[in-house]
Design brief:
The complex is a heterotrimer of chains A (185), B (319) and C (438).
Chain A (H helix, E strand, L loop, with lengths): L4 E6 L1 H18 L6 E6 L2 H17 L5 E4 L8 H4 L18 E9 L3 H11 L6 E9 L11 E5 L7 E5 L1 H4 L3 E6 L6
Parallel strand pairs in A: 2-3, 2-4, 4-5, 5-6
Antiparallel strand pairs in A: 1-8, 7-8
Chain B lengths: L16 H17 L14 E6 L5 H12 L3 E6 L4 H4 L3 H10 L4 E6 L4 H6 L5 E7 L5 H14 L6 E5 L6 H12 L3 E5 L15 E3 L2 H7 L2 E4 L4 H5 L6 H8 L3 H5 L6 E3 L12 H4 L6 H19 L4 H7 L6
Parallel strand pairs in B: 1-2, 1-3, 3-4, 5-6, 5-8, 6-7, 8-9
Chain C lengths: L3 E10 L4 E10 L2 E6 L9 E4 L4 E4 L1 E6 L12 H10 L2 E6 L10 H14 L3 E4 L1 E2 L12 H7 L4 E2 L8 H13 L4 E3 L4 H4 L4 E2 L2 H6 L3 E2 L1 H18 L3 E3 L5 H12 L4 E5 L1 H5 L21 H12 L5 E2 L8 H4 L16 H10 L6 H15 L15 E11 L18 E11 L2 E5 L13
Parallel strand pairs in C: 1-4, 1-5, 6-7, 7-8, 9-10, 10-11, 11-14, 12-13, 14-15, 15-16
Antiparallel strand pairs in C: 1-2, 2-3, 5-17, 17-18, 18-19
Classes of the chains: A alpha/beta (185), B alpha/beta (319), C alpha/beta (438).
Chain lengths: 185, 319, 438
Amino acid sequence: MLTDKRQLLLDERAFARTLHRMVLDILRQNPDPDRLVLIGIQRRGVELAARLASLLARETGAQVPRGALDITLYRDDFEVVGPRPLVGPTHLPVKLDGREAWIVDDVLFTGRTVRAALDELADFGRPGRIGLAVLVDRGGRELPIQADVVGERVPTAGGDRVEVFVRELDGRDAVEVVRAGRAAP
Amino acid sequence: MSGALGKDLLGLEHLSADQIRLILDTAEPFKEISERAIKKVPVLRGKTIVNLFFEASTRTRISFEFAEKRLSADTVNVAASGSSVVKGETLVDTARNLEAMRIDMVVMRHGSSGAAKFLADRIESTVINAGDGKHEHPTQGLLDLLTIRDHRPIAGTKVCIVGDVLHSRVARSNIWGLLKLGAAVAVCGPQSLLPLGIEALGVHVFRRVEEAIAWADVLNVLRLQLERMQAGYIPSLREYYRHFGVTVERLEQAPRDLLILHPGPMNRGVEIDSRVADGPHSVILNQVTNGVAVRMAVLYLLAGGNPELAEAAKGASDR
Amino acid sequence: MKPIVVRGARVVDPSAGRDEIADVLLQDGVVRAVGRGLGTPDGAAVLDAAGLVAAPGLVDLHVHLREPGREDVETIATGARAAAAGGFTSVCAMPNTDPVTDNQAAVGFILGQARRAGFARVYPIGAVSLGQQGEQLAEIGELAAAGAVAVSDDGRPVATAHLMRTALEYARTFAIPVIDHCEDQSLSHGGAMHEGLTSTRLGLKGIPRSAEDIIVARDIALAELTGGHVHFAHVSTAGAVRMIREAKARGLRVTAEVTPHHFTLTDAACESYETNAKMNPPLREATDVAALRAGLADGTIDCIATDHAPHHYDAKEAEFDNAPFGVVGLETALGLAIAELVEPGVLTLAQLVERMASGPASLAHLPGGTLRPGQPADVVVFDPAAAWTVDPALFFSKSRNTPFGGRRLRGLVRWTLVGGVVVHSAGDRPDTGNRSGR
């Protein structure tokens, strides 16, 4: 009998500590917060970008502008999977040229979402630098893409799922890993 | 290829309310793309779309062309003159030739009702009806719905279509879309320009435009064509304007602020006053903007992927 | 020619008041005897007709055989063969050929072609006006003398009241009817189907009932004025039926026919822009179908005629507006009539034979339509209960434009005999060479 096993990776407190650590990492790589812009990938990347921005404001006093990207129209699997509903708006509040743009997403897996985000950002302008901050890196890359700031690393197998919950959408902050069921030996 | 909308978009009569809402909802984010500096997304990159127009049309064809190019598709415009009979090559042969060139989609406008279905039944490519005879003009109906929805919910709104309903594919598509989304629909015009049996579709009939204006929240004013006068349906354009023209004076009598739509091109001073067309309640230009977004949404939804592969890919990674 | 005995059929012959199990002896091209227990003459062939119906061969007053001019879609030979397959032993060929049948040479040509083919008998109908142009009266006397059995400008209405009046008066001299296709073209112009909710939904210009009713009213008034015989082709509206009933009640010499597609289908058949449902007059609504059936039942409508109108596949494979009007009908008429009229009890079998054989024959003064001894041996033997599915690929007609492909019908022809010779047997197939005719 195959059963999925659900593990709690980060509880509410660990979640908050992780975000705080990510903010410090971002600042370490990029000491001038006035050039920063955080761009969250729909959906939960947007909420995480908001959290990081407010933490940055507490740390530095700087108001970092935030944008959102829906990468649905830049996916590379349209042929296979077909049209999907767009999950949320795309908007960028400031011009990107010369800025330090950080893409924020909840889970980094194959890297295809980030590739789509990079393509989409290129249509909006030319940042001085693009960084990538993710809450969870679950391995399994299919493209040569790495995050500059990682909240938590967890190795996973193909059938596993990493589920991120944010208070704004799900009522709680947590990260859970669901291991795909394996046959009993 | 089939997805939520099936292989083709031939009309609104046989779409469900959910399908229509899907198209309108999908069109919303596409509005934003037309506001960007780089008005392009790569989603239909490498797709070939033929705009096959048997009737001259500037605005619809350009609107489709913008929509196609903004989705990064490759477009080819074919302006086929007159009826297929006059041309010599039948519509069937045109269709087969296009298919042999492995095109993905055809956007067709044709003078015969049913021509879009005729083509769709005979080729594998997706067919989008850009107007077939007097039958339907679904993308126009959809952009009219979207434009109304920008201002008020469609359900419960009272929409009156004014003008030559008998010969209007725009009117028919509007009627289907509005009824399915819960609007109250009426038509108004001289009886010689109203089709037999229209009430049986669930549509009120007003014989005087003043009554229509008193009732409606939205007016969709149709273009009156010169040919109708020449064919004897109405005595003169002057008479039409006097009794059915949407004028500032008539609108001033309206109990509420009416939204004014017009599919274009307008005959100023025949069916509509310039001051109304250019006035504060006119959303005619919004219709044009929404037209590109709606057409992008339709192309996007119909260009969809291979359903078998989609099933197989369901378990695959997407991050 | 061998004598033939049709053994043990239910013989239905309204002209002789007969409906009973009997044998029919055919000899030397005529009916020799009808009765029980007829002997078998030397050398006679016996057709075992137990469980079958034997009736006078069916007579179709309205077919288009397309020859001369459009031999690609039908010829007199293929049309006559299709007629035989449908149980028809006589058909009347409309004159809207190319050239038009408006002179004696054209009439003779048709008769000659039909004789050479040797299947169903073909009686030419001459034109009312030269070239069917609606201007000058054709030489109706010459046409009648050459063998035309009626005149018509079918395809079009007789153009003006004056022309119709003149034709009726003139044709009276030669005792032939004027057959009118009733259509006011100023109302029908550009129309592709019945004007109603369906045409509104499909965005097609409609042909209102009034287009037909107006000309029916005109012709009834002219029948009254002239005392001539008007025969109304392919009646399609309830209004026409009502006016014809009333005209007959007043003793006017008007007769009428209806097609199987008009008593079976409504304008709903045009959904999906099906061009095989496009004909003129168009399919109308359920109320009209009901009125047509009632008209057949009470005799207001004298006969069933197919308006068999072959068209090329390519021509019908077009946008609805551009497709030609017309459907074939010879090979589905009996099956539809039994399924749609006899089974539901609109007509008895005897009444059906009246409407499809004796009625039309006497209306047009044609030989046949009867099994009385001494009359031509034109017989149809059919199984009234056999259910079968229409497969246009098996038609003997050159054309396949029928709205009934795939439809289940009842009543299948077993043998058709013309002049005492079998011209069709069930099981004949178009490609395997037909039985030889007369």
